[in-house]
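User: Last request for today: this protein with flavin-adenine dinucleotide, please.
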Amino acid sequence: MAEDRSKGEVWVFAEQEDGVLSDVPRELLGKGRELADKLGVPLAAVLMGENVEPLAKDLFEAGADKVHLVEDAGLKVFRGKAYRHAFVKLIRECGPQIVIFGATHMGRDLAPAVASELRCGLTADCTDLQIGDYTDNKTKENFSNVLLQIRPAFGGNIIATIVNPRNWPQMATVREGVMKPLEKAPGRTGETIRHDAGLDGVEIPVEVLEIVRRHSSINLKGARIIVAGGAGVGSKENFALLHELADVLGGAVGGSRAAVDLGYCEHERQIGQTGVTVRPALFISCGISGAVQHLAGMQDSAKIIAINTDKDAPIFKVAHYGIVGDLNVVIPKMIKAIKQKGG
Amino acid sequence: MNECKESRSGGYNCVVCIKQVPDTKKVTGQAMKADGTINRAALPAIFNPEDRNALEAALSVKEKHGGTVTAIAMGLPNACEILREALMCGADKAYLVTDRKAAGSDTLATSYILSCAVRKLNPDLVFCGRQAIDGDTAQTGPQIAEKLGFAAITYLEGLEMDGDYAIATRNIGTGIEKDRVKLPALFTVTEKFGELRPYDVRRVMKYKKAKAPAENGGVALEGDRAIGQFSCDDIGAEPERCGFAGSPTNVNKIVSVVLAGGDYKEVPATDEGIAHLVSELIADHTIG
Ligand SMILES: Cc1cc2nc3c(=O)[nH]c(=O)nc-3n(C[C@H](O)[C@H](O)[C@H](O)COP(=O)(O)OP(=O)(O)OC[C@H]3O[C@@H](n4cnc5c(N)ncnc54)[C@H](O)[C@@H]3O)c2cc1C
Ligand SMILES: Nc1ncnc2c1ncn2[C@@H]1O[C@H](COP(=O)(O)O)[C@@H](O)[C@H]1O
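Assistant: Here's the final one, the structure of the complex with flavin-adenine dinucleotide:
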């Protein structure tokens, strides 16, 4: 069994592309801060790339106590094997007790490979992480202060809590958009520790020939108000009604998977288990039945208004305000009321 | 990009990992047991959707460049259903990996066992689905690659071969990337790759009675009707790395998603009702 690592740090992978941090590291640092404080250990970000040191400042301001910096020309663009190699070396040298990654394309490529090489457990796509105690039902062994990794499974029909108390580090990927970043603390600083990537003599079997970034103007995660439509909207043309409501509210438009599959809206707008997770101040759901896979991506919204002709639709179970009615009638009334009251 | 790519003589040997999964779309009241757990037996078992795309990727390589396609599934003998499907669609050979020692495997143990089976088949290319719909972990593919020391390309959307290299198009979330990959390599395939071709009628006749020994009282069939079978011992998998023993993750607690709900404020779908709601939202600064 591994040595006692209960004094080990809590680590967050600070994913960056082209020298720009994505939102996920800030979200993970928000949660990581809570975990590290509970354990009484430092919170560190792992920053890898070429010439990425300037990003350390952002990580301190987002809650990190330390930044483990690994700069190497071989890490300029993400290549699974190079990143895995550097990451495994770092874990072996520093012995963190917890390592969390965003469940992004990059995180879901890197984390399993790291866990495989270290032969430790990894839980994918967590929606919550907590520190708690665990008793093994079979052996009656007790473990205190382990990482409780909470995630939906089985197509969203169950919520499972997973632990891996015997192998270190405890690793998890966390869904984008579910953890809250901390308020930015300007001027907050910390310690930057440089490490060698150890890539000399390591053959990397992948050459990146070309990257075409898709700069989407659709930003659901940042929206304070979201108007979302489902199959009940009925047509692509009718989706314009939702855009109109979103416009008067200064919000964004999202959709259910059925709406995306039917071609009513773009894939980037899909909310739910296989789309984005959102938690806006106001979520207006129009013609969406409320399947668990959809609810997984929106039920933490501060206020939910559901509009549906079927009074038994499951969406009403997560709603704060329910309007049983035809969205074609209700939405125009809403637009009118908001315009009148100068919303 | 140069259009005329070089194939290798003899083509490419491809292995596809396919999983039989419960159809999680069909989870209804009946499939939930009284204690809130899922009665898997009440759900139809299907060919994991993205594994169909993975099989298509392998078949399209074989179609263009020659070689072989071998499907493997780890699970109970029932999983032979999808192996037969794979054969009917064009796979040359199918193997079931089945062993009591494999029971309770998490992704680390599963990928270890599958990597032992794949190693025995010595392929140039391995294809997995991006993720399975029961666990949704997307971990098995990259972990098999790590254990075999193969290059791993996740989220594959397109593939061309170029001698000892593959030119892979993959989704990186923030865009699309094109990679040149040295073989051997493993790919995890998304639905974007394209649908699995339909059954070939002649193959349906040929393979519908194919069976693994586990389905046939332990007796292996001959020729086309043989689905190969591996135990952990057959593939040299160390018992302490299989099943419960080889799985670092434990499930601590499961709760079914039963929504509490019902206590929302009802807003009548009238002008007054909606005007009142809007006023309330303005008053509490949700909008405005
Ligand atoms: C593995 C997996 C992952 C999935 N991931 C996602 C995901 O990320 N996101 C997602 O959304 N889904 C996801 N799904 C699909 C999900 O199960 C549902 O099929 C989907 O959410 C249904 O979309 P919907 O509510 O728009 O359509 P429907 O279920 O068809 O509901 C339409 C609703 O509109 C109402 N309606 C009809 N006409 C009107 C009208 N005029 N006015 C008002 N209401 C009206 C109806 O009463 C009905 O409730 C996933 C499924 C699986 C198996
Ligand atoms: N038991 C299994 N048998 C064969 N292939 C599997 C098995 N489990 C996982 N895989 C492969 O790994 C992929 C990812 O699975 P998962 O990590 O469970 O999401 C699947 O799409 C399959 O290609």
